[in-house]
Amino acid sequence: MEQVIEMDPDLMRVINFSDARSQLKQVIDQVVDDADFTIISRRDAQDAVVMSLDTFNSMMETLYLLKSPANAAHLNRSISQYRKGQTKAKGLVDAE
């Protein structure tokens, strides 16, 4: 099942293939600097996305964590508790 994520078109960075090719360094620098992505539109083929490796790895980690229904439910409960102010500060434990 394919999931479609609707995004605000005003917030998306889209560039056509010819411009992306001639400005590739700037496109890559911008997605790395902004931790964002850019859509490359192509006239007679499917569009593509350019993003930094950090952004890609972050997305893959999120997908992995949400793949398990039990883990996704636990994360949602934790986020809900955080938003309601039901958290406790704890110190870090040294591994030594």
Please work out how many helical segments DSSP would assign: 4
Structural class: alpha+beta
CATH homologous superfamily identity of the domain at 14-55: YefM-like domain
- End-to-end gap: 46 Å
What proportion strand?
A: 5-15%
Overall pLDDT metric: 87
Task: Please compute the radius of gyration using only Cα atoms.
Answer: 19 Å
Please tell me the CATH architecture of the domain at 14-55 by its name.
3-Layer(aba) Sandwich
Low-pLDDT residue intervals, each spanning 5 or more residues: none
Helix share bin: 40-55%
Shape: elongated
Name the strands of the widest sheet in spatial order.
Answer: 1-2-3
CATH topology of the domain at 14-55: YefM-like fold
Report the count of strand segments. 3
CATH class value of the domain at 14-55: Alpha Beta
Q: Sheet with the most strands?
A: 3 strands, mixed
Give me a quick take on this structure.
The protein has helices at 17-22, 24-34, 53-67, 69-83, and strands at residues 14-16, 37-41, 48-51.
Could you please describe the fold and organization of this structure?
With 96 residues, the chain is α+β, with helices and mostly antiparallel strands. It has a domain at 14-55: YefM-like domain (YefM-like fold, 3-Layer(aba) Sandwich). The chain has 4 helices and 3 strands; from the N terminus they run βααββαα. A 3-stranded mixed beta sheet has the order 1-2-3. Strand 2 and strand 3 (48-51) form a beta hairpin. It is elongated and about 50 Å long. The N and C termini lie far apart (46 Å). The model has no long low-confidence stretch (mean pLDDT 87).
